[in-house]
C-alpha cells in the first residue's frame, strides 16, 4: 500500500511526535497582559468572583486577593486587576476561562468600541495606588503605635493609682492602729492615775490616824510605845500596797509637801526605810534645799550599807556626791562606802564601775574626791577596774582595731560574737590583735584589758582571740542540763551546767561551741528568761517540736565533722559509732573532765 493511502486511512500516527504536536495545537493560548487587563476592566464583578470561587482557583484566589477583600471593590482595585492580568498572561487555561466568560453572555462582553483593547497605562496607576496604600498602612501603624503608647500610659497611671490607694490604705490602717494603741494607753494611764489617787487618799487617811495617835501620847510614854507598835503595824499593812509608786506620782505632779509628809510618816515607823529616804532626798533636791537633800542622801547610804545592799549604796553615794561633794560628812560616808566594796562580787563591781563612770561625766570634781578614796583603800587591781586609767577602753567603747570590720566593734560585741560562734568576726579580730601585738604593743595591752574587763574574769573568751581554735564541737545541751543530781532532785533542768561546759570547751581550744537542745528545754529549764535571751542572741539552737534531738545532733556533728559532747550513747541512731562522742564530768569544785 502506498504511503499516501496509509496516511489517509490509518488513524495511527506516523511518528512518535504526533500526539505532542496535537496536544500543543489543542492547548488554549494565553492572553497578553494588556488584553487581559482591558478584558478584566470591562467585566462586572459577580461573574469573575464566581469564577474565582471555584475549587480549581482556590490558590489563585488567595494569591490575588492577598491584602484585599474579595468583593466588587477589591476586584476593582488596580493591584488585584494587575495580578489577575499577569495570571491570564501566564496561564492559558485561565485565559480561556475568561474568554468563555466573556462569550457566555452578551451583557458580560466588552463594549463594542473595545473591539481592539487599548493599551492601559497600568504601571503608573498601580504605582500610585501602591504608594497610597503604603502611606495608609504607615498612617495606620502610627495610629496603632500612638494608641498602644496611650494604653501603656493609662495602664501605668492605673498602676500608680492602685499603688497610691494601697499606700493610703496602709497609712490609714497604721493610723487607726496607732489611734487604738494611744486610746488603750490613755485608758491605762487613766486607770493608773485613779488607782494612785485612791492609794494617796488611803495613805493620807492613815497619816491622819498616825498624827491623831501621836497627839494623844507623849514621847517616851507607854502610849508612845503603843503608837510606835501601831505605826509599825500600819506601815507593815501599807507595805503591801505600792505606796512608793503613789509618792513618786505625787513628786511628778509637783506635790512635794504631800509626798514628803507621807515619806516622813513611813520613816517614823521605819527610820531605815530605803525607799522613804530616797524619796525625801529627791523631794529636798527638787525643792532647792541641798543641805537637807545631802543629809537624806547620807542617811540613805548609811542605811543601805547597814542592810548590806551595796548596789543601793552605790546609787545613793553617787547621788550624795552630785548634791554636796565637799562636806566632811560626805567624805566620811564615802570612806565607809569604799571600804564595803567586796572583790568577789563581780556584779557589784560592774554596777559600781558604771555608776562611777556616770559620776565622772556629770561632775569631775566629785569623782576626783571619790577617786582618792578608791586609790587609797582598795587593791590596785580592783582600783584599776573601778577607776580605769585615762585612755583605758571600757566594755562598751569602740575598739580601735586595725583592719576592716562590717560594724564598729566593742569588747561586749566581740564577746557576743564568740558566744554565738561567729567565725568570720572572731578570725578577723584574732588577726587584728596579732598585728597589734607586733606593731603597737601599747594598743594591744589596752585592747586585751578591755576584753578582760568585759569578760569579767572569764579567760575562756580570750582563747579564740589569741590562738587558732582546734575546731568546732557540738554540745547536747539537754543532756548537760540534766547532768547533776541537783537537777534530778529538783525535777528541773539547770542552765549552769550548760554554761560551765561551754566555758570549759572554749578553754580547751574548741570554737565555735554549738549548743543544741530539744524542744521541751525552754519549758523545763530553771532560768527560762536567760535561755530565751540566749536563743534570741543565737547562742543556742532549739530543735523543732516533734523532731528527735538525737538525730539532729548527730547530723550536725557529721556536717561539721566535729565531736559531740554528750553522756548519751545514742545507740539507736548511731550504732556504728560514726560520730566521736566526748563524755564529760563537772566536778563540784569546778572545772570539767572529758574523755571519749
Summarize the SSE layout with pairings.
Layout: H1 3-9, H2 18-26, H3 33-42, H4 45-52, H5 58-64, H6 72-75, H7 78-90, H8 92-104, H9 122-215, H10 222-239, H11 243-252, H12 256-269, H13 274-286, H14 290-307, H15 310-323, H16 328-339, H17 346-362, H18 364-377, H19 380-386, H20 411-419, H21 423-439, H22 441-455, H23 463-466, E1 471-476, H24 477-481, H25 485-490, H26 496-507, E2 510-517, H27 521-524, H28 528-536, E3 540-542, H29 549-560, E4 564-565, E5 581-585, E6 593-595
Parallel strand pairs: 1-2, 1-4, 2-3, 4-5
Antiparallel strand pairs: 5-6
Structural description of this entry:
By secondary structure, the chain is mainly α. α3 (33-42) packs across α7 (78-90) and α11 runs antiparallel to α12 (256-269). It contains 29 helices and six strands. The model is unreliable at 1-25, 108-120 and 216-241 (pLDDT under 50). Strands 3-2-1-4-5-6 form a six-stranded mixed β-sheet, sandwiched between helices. It is elongated. A hairpin with a 7-residue loop joins β5 (581-585) and β6 (593-595).
Amino acid at each position: 500500500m502506498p504511503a499516501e493511502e496509509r496516511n489517509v486511512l490509518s488513524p495511527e500516527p506516523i511518528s512518535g511526535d504526533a500526539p505532542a504536536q496535537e496536544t500543543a495545537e489543542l492547548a488554549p493560548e494565553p492572553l497578553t497582559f494588556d488584553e487581559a487587563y482591558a478584558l478584566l476592566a470591562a467585566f462586572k464583578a459577580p461573574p469573575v468572583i464566581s469564577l474565582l470561587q471555584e475549587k480549581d482557583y482556590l490558590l489563585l484566589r488567595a494569591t490575588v486577593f492577598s491584602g484585599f477583600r474579595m468583593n466588587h471593590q477589591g476586584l476593582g482595585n488596580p493591584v488585584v486587576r494587575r495580578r489577575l492580568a499577569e495570571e491570564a498572561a501566564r496561564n492559558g487555561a485561565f485565559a480561556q476561562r475568561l474568554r468563555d466568560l466573556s462569550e457566555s453572555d452578551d451583557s458580560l462582553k466588552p463594549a463594542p468600541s473595545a473591539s481592539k483593547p487599548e493599551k492601559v497605562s497600568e504601571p503608573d496607576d498601580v504605582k500610585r495606588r501602591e504608594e497610597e496604600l503604603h502611606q495608609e498602612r504607615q498612617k495606620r501603624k502610627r495610629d496603632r503605635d500612638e494608641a498602644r503608647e496611650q494604653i501603656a500610659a493609662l495602664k501605668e497611671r492605673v498602676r500608680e493609682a492602685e499603688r497610691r490607694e494601697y499606700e493610703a490604705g496602709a497609712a490609714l490602717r497604721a493610723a487607726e492602729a496607732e489611734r487604738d494603741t494611744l486610746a488603750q494607753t490613755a485608758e491605762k494611764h487613766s486607770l493608773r492615775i485613779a488607782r494612785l489617787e485612791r492609794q494617796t487618799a488611803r495613805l493620807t487617811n492613815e497619816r491622819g490616824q498616825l498624827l491623831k495617835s501621836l497627839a494623844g501620847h507623849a514621847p517616851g510614854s507607854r502610849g508612845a510605845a503603843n503608837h510606835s507598835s501601831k505605826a509599825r503595824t500600819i506601815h507593815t499593812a501599807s507595805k503591801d500596797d505600792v505606796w512608793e509608786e503613789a509618792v513618786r506620782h505625787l513628786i511628778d505632779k509637783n506635790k512635794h509637801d504631800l509626798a514628803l509628809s507621807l515619806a516622813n510618816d513611813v520613816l517614823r515607823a521605819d527610820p531605815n526605810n530605803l525607799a522613804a529616804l530616797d524619796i525625801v532626798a529627791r523631794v529636798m533636791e527638787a525643792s532647792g534645799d541641798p543641805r537637807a537633800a545631802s543629809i537624806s542622801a547620807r542617811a540613805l547610804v548609811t542605811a543601805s550599807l547597814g542592810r548590806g545592799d551595796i548596789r543601793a549604796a552605790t546609787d545613793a553615794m553617787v547621788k550624795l556626791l552630785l548634791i554636796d561633794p565637799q562636806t566632811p560628812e560626805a567624805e566620811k560616808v564615802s570612806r565607809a562606802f569604799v571600804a564595803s566594796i567586796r572583790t568577789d562580787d563581780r556584779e557589784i563591781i560592774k554596777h559600781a564601775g558604771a555608776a562611777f563612770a556616770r559620776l565622772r561625766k556629770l561632775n569631775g570634781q566629785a569623782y576626783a574626791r571619790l577617786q582618792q578614796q578608791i586609790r587609797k583603800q582598795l587593791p590596785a587591781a580592783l582600783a584599776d577596774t573601778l577607776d580605769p586609767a585615762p585612755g583605758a577602753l571600757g566594755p562598751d567603747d569602740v575598739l580601735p582595731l586595725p583592719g576592716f570590720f562590717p560594724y564598729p566593734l566593742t569588747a561586749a560585741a566581740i564577746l557576743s560574737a564568740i558566744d554565738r560562734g561567729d567565725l568570720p568576726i572572731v578570725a578577723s579580730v584574732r588577726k587584728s590583735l596579732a598585728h597589734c601585738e607586733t606593731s603597737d604593743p601599747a594598743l594591744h595591752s589596752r585592747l586585751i584589758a578591755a576584753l578582760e574587763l568585759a569578760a569579767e574574769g572569764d579567760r575562756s573568751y580570750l582563747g579564740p582571740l589569741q590562738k587558732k581554735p582546734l575546731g568546732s564541737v557540738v554540745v547536747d545541751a539537754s543532756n548537760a542540763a540534766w547532768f547533776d543530781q541537783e537537777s534530778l532532785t529538783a525535777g528541773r533542768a539547770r542552765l549552769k551546767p550548760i554554761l560551765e561546759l561551754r566555758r570549759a570547751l572554749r578553754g580547751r581550744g574548741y570554737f565555735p561551741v554549738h549548743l543544741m537542745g530539744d524542744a521541751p528545754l525552754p519549758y523545763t529549764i530553771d532560768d527560762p528568761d536567760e535561755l530565751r535571751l540566749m536563743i534570741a542572741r543565737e547562742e543556742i539552737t532549739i530543735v523543732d517540736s516533734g523532731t528527735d534531738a538525737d538525730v539532729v545532733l548527730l547530723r550536725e556533728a557529721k556536717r561539721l565533722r566535729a565531736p559531740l559532747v554528750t553522756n548519751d550513747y545514742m545507740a539507736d541512731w548511731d550504732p556504728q559509732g560514726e560520730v566521736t562522742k566526748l563524755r564529760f564530768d563537772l566536778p563540784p569544785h569546778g572545772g570539767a573532765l572529758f574523755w571519749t
